[in-house]
Amino acid sequence: MRGGLAGCTGTGGKDRVRQIAVVSKDFPSDYWKSVRSGAQAAADEFGLKLVYMTAGEYSDPLRQQQEYMSEAIASQVDGILLAPADYSGLAAKLQEARSRRIPVVTMDAQTESTYPVSHVATDNVRSAAIAAGFMQQSGASGKVLIVRSGSDSFTEDARISGFKKGLDGTKLVISETLSVPSGNLAAMQTAVAYLRGHTDISGIFATCSECAAGAGLAVREIGLTDRIVCIGFDSSQDEIRLLEEGVLQAIVVQNPFAMGYFGVKAVADTLSGIKVQPLIETKAEIVTKETIKLPEYQKLIYPFDK
């Protein structure tokens, strides 16, 4: 889905409304709906027009984002807010934006390019380290399995790094990092096969929503809920159900509304000549079955409920 960039070229008069292209993953989930809601709130506040260019519904989101970046640059948008689908695959497009002097802010996931003027995201290293501490407190001992996606994700790499740092000095050791295919069912099947061949796993840390849902479903399928401490990132409906069932012991919940808001604000500030921080952190929270009903967590998890 795309907004409309027709007629965006040219410098225009002093009263021309600045246009920001939001090149996003935008999968059909409350997380990305909340990112978009935060972005729009900032656009309304700063008098900007957002043009949404979303790649989540396509089979090849990286290729789609490359095309959207080309379109945004050719249309001479004033700025770009990018949630990259790949760590390295957008480097050429970012260099092109630099050559056109179009400021770019990244959110949610980073890229290898040094061009973005700011990055807005959860501190994945710190949040994952907190998750590691929670796992130890929850009674896991011995071997821990890390479950990640098969994509080239700097975000997941950071979460794995933080989790490992959080285990330093504990009696927990990483057994392996298991890459699973996309889709809850495929992730579950891969995790089931692994767990049936490795009966000494006492904990699982899953680095993304589908990873967490797949791992949790695998634990439930084999009947290991009482033996394996399972912690996942994000707050999909599948994860929430597994948390409420007691299959997942905790989830790391991000603040996507703040991510969208501060992403657009960073672009607006840059256009106004205001220096922005290279890293703008949005806070994440550890949520359990016992704390999920607290109002502050309900608002994070169900931002569109009345």
How does the SSE layout of this entry go?
Elements (H helix, E strand, L loop, with lengths): L18 E6 L5 H17 L2 E6 L6 H14 L4 E4 L8 H9 L4 E4 L10 E5 L1 H14 L4 E8 L4 H14 L4 E9 L3 H14 L3 E6 L2 H14 L6 E5 L3 H9 L4 E4 L2 H16 L7 E4 L2 E3 L7 H7 L5
Parallel strand pairs: 1-2, 1-3, 3-4, 4-5, 5-11, 6-7, 6-8, 8-9, 9-10
Antiparallel strand pairs: 10-12
Helix pairs in contact: 1-9, 2-3, 4-5, 6-7
Entry summary:
With 306 residues, this protein is α/β, with parallel strands linked by helices. The protein contains ten helices and twelve strands. 42% of the residues lie in helices and 21% in strands.
Q: Give the ordered list of helices and strands.
A: EHEHEHEEHEHEHEHEHEHEEH
SS field, number of helical segments:
10
Average pLDDT, all residues: 91
CATH architecture of the largest domain: 3-Layer(aba) Sandwich
Structural class: alpha/beta
**How many strands appear in the DSSP assignment?**
12
Q: Low-confidence segments, ≥5 residues, pLDDT <50?
A: none
Shape: elongated
Q: In the CATH hierarchy, what is the superfamily of the largest domain?
A: Response regulator
| Radius of gyration of CA atoms, rounded to a whole number | 20 Å
Number of domains: 2
How far the N terminus sits from the C terminus, by CA atoms, comes to 27 Å
The first-level CATH class name of the largest domain: Alpha Beta
Instruction: Classify the beta-strand content into a percent band.
Output: 15-25%
Largest sheet: number of strands, sense, barrel closure = 6 strands, parallel
Helical percent range? 40-55%
CATH topology of the largest domain: Rossmann fold
